[in-house]
Design goal:
Blueprint lengths: L2 H26 L3 E11 L7 E5 L14 E9 L8 E10 L9 E9 L7 E9 L5 E11 L5 E12 L2 E11 L1
Antiparallel strand pairs: 1-3, 1-9, 2-3, 3-4, 4-5, 5-6, 6-7, 7-8, 8-9
Bound molecules: 2-acetamido-2-deoxy-beta-D-glucopyranose (2 copies).
One 2-acetamido-2-deoxy-beta-D-glucopyranose binds next to strand 1.
Length: 176
């Protein structure tokens, strides 16, 4: 091979390496989603979606406090109204773990996106919800399906409270 040919081969190799690099980085670029959804927690039987399953105040929400253990299967809806389209479920559990019983629950929870949503998968969270602060932040533990390898956080705000239940707005900041 002449020097010119060697140069051309090197150039082609360099170009395909660069393309492969570029292709690789395009394929593996993290996707980002910022989603807003509404979690509806119902407390009035027979539609309750949350249960004081063990500890203080078992079966009586007026008496929950330090040591209560709650289990929930809340609705995820597109909006704050009861009639807003259903997107999935927020399932999980958590204790009230501050001694004064005023800081809400320390939850472990999975958002399960169902048929009504454009996603197929779950995102799991850990953190504190339902205390006196107007907003709280939850950490993403991970995801499945469309959300495999998810990282990020959620900001949770209480938008409606009544004896019948509570509506929370969750804003998710995800990359996966
Ligand atoms: C999501 O929100 C973050 C923080 O506000 C912002 O930096 C990012 O660009 C947003 N991503 C999308 C896809 O909207
Ligand atoms: C949802 O994802 C799972 C795997 O993560 C797959 O088995 C299932 O077929 C998917 N369902 C739909 C409706 O795409």
């Amino acid at each position: 091979m002449s020097n010119q040919q060697v140069g051309a081969v090197a150039l082609v190799a360099l170009a395909s390496w660069a393309l492969a690099k570029l292709g690789y980085s395009l394929v593996s670029a993290p996707k980002e989603s910022n989603l807003t959804l509404y979690v509806h927690e119902m407390r009035a039987p027979p539609d309750s979606t949350v249960l004081a399953a063990a500890g203080t105040g078992q079966n009586d929400f007026t008496k929950i406090g330090f040591g209560s253990f709650l289990v929930f299967d809340n609705e995820i809806r597109d909006g704050p109204e009861r009639t807003s389209p259903l997107l999935g479920r927020q399932r999980g559990y958590g204790p009230i773990s501050d001694l004064q019983g005023k800081q809400g629950i320390q939850l472990t929870s999975t958002l399960v996106f169902g048929r009504g949503s454009s996603y197929n998968g779950t995102v799991s969270f850990q953190g504190n919800v339902g205390g006196p602060e107007p907003t709280t932040e939850l950490a993403v533990l991970g995801g499945t399906g469309d959300f495999r390898g998810a990282k990020g956080y959620a900001i949770v705000e209480t938008v409606k409270t009544s004896p019948l239940g509570v509506v929370f707005r969750w804003t998710l900041y995800l990359s996966y």
